[in-house]
Amino acid sequence: MMDGSYGICKTRQNGNIYQFFMWIDDEKKMLRKTLRTSHLEDAKEKGKDLFLTILSRKNDGKNYFGLTVKQGIEKYLKFKQMEVDSGMITQGRHICIKSHLKHFHSYLCERKYDTDKSTGFYFAKVNLKDLHRRSFLKYFHYRKTKSKGLVEDITLKNEQCTINSLVRYLHDEGEMDFIGFDFPKLKLPNNRDKTRRSTFTIDEYKKLTKELRSYCGRKKCRNESEHINKQVLRHFILIAANTGLRIRELRCLKWNDIIWIKNIKGKKYVKLAIRGETSKTSKDRMFVTRGGEYFERLRRISHYSHQLNYVFQTEEETRFSKRIIYGKHWDNLMNKIGISNWKERKLTYYSLRHFYVTMRILSGCSYSDVAQMCGNSTAQIEKTYYHVSEQKMITEATRDFVVDEEVIKRVA
Fold it and tell me: Is the dihedral of CA 127, 133, 134, 136 positive or negative?
């Protein structure tokens, strides 16, 4: 038909139902599809319509068989990178989306093989057209199994949103036939106690700062390079706990983002300007906090103290290495201060930010002040750290009082 562009035929094997077949050269695949009729004239008409549909799709620059899952992800990430370049989202958000879609790809494409000699994984090529709305009903079970139960429900909910955002984009691009997957329902916490963040106690933080002196000392380092790396890591931890900055904000912080360091009432304070492009919220903010002495000491130690250098930098023109941050050091430190269950408690570098917020609230700072310093909304701070304020109120309310010469004194 159409000068050999496609053909129709019927066989007894197919129940005398006419079949459409066409070789799609650029995709190197043979398309076979039933025309659902045993009448020749109807088959010719349906075959012609299908051929024109395929031709129209090709003229629009689209594959008939559609993109693979991997190609769909790459197309979406390129689109999101355009939003990063135009300032609509941050690079950190793009990294987060990419991480979510890595799990999406693994769930759909990962297949195990097991032979007598080897075990491993390969990635199958799955087309987007092969998917249907109910393809992700077992996704949450898969993620919890792979993470050995460590992944939190709120993380799964965020992944669900990212995946369905991808599907909506691909649907608008004509690559998928529906606008979202059906996921099982998650019972997310709806009370304030469930939103508590993992953090350190004051005693644990004191042990950590004490251990850092020894762990990062020259005697525990094999050479000068290791000593410098450990000292930068030490100050990374100390400054994180005293400023409440997010990990990306810390890694992107430059010396020219420090407005001033002043001695106020015997303590060193620092004024920081956080650039919107380095922040999760994409908003600039400026605040004063403690920990100025750590910045001064790190600047004396660092080989990179120029105004345009990163504060946490150990190599030329690069931010503080993730290999150093997420290597063995955190595990070593947690075990040395006696927190062997730090994984179960989900204590990470980010817990230092939660420690900062907790200490600020306990010291009497208002939710709005803490929110401004941390780059969060007041409502989010109140929701997440309500238990801290409640604990403070209970402590104040249950203190004992004595009367001494007609003066009420509070008993500590």
Answer: positive
Which pLDDT tens digit goes with each residue over 325-352? Answer: 878 899 999 999 999 899 888 899 999 9
pLDDT at residue 325, rounded to an integer: 81
Output the pLDDT for position 217. 92
CA atoms within 13 Å, Cβ hemisphere of 318: 8
Both tokens of residue 50? 């299908």
For residues 113 and 52, is the Cβ–Cβ distance under 8 A? no
Record the pTM: 0.66
Tell me the pLDDT tens digit for each residue of 235-260.
999 999 999 999 999 999 999 999 99
φ, ψ for residue 258 (rounded to 5)?
Answer: -90, 110
Per the rule left: phi > 0, alpha: psi between -120 and 50, beta: everything else, 285 is: beta
At 38-68, the pLDDT tens digits run 899 999 999 889 888 888 877 777 677 778 8
Residue 133 near residue 178 (C-beta atoms within 8 A): yes
Q: What tens digit of pLDDT does each residue of 254-313 get?
A: 999 999 999 998 999 999 999 988 888 888 999 999 999 999 999 999 999 999 999 999
Give the whole-angstrom CA distance, residue 239 versus residue 301.
15
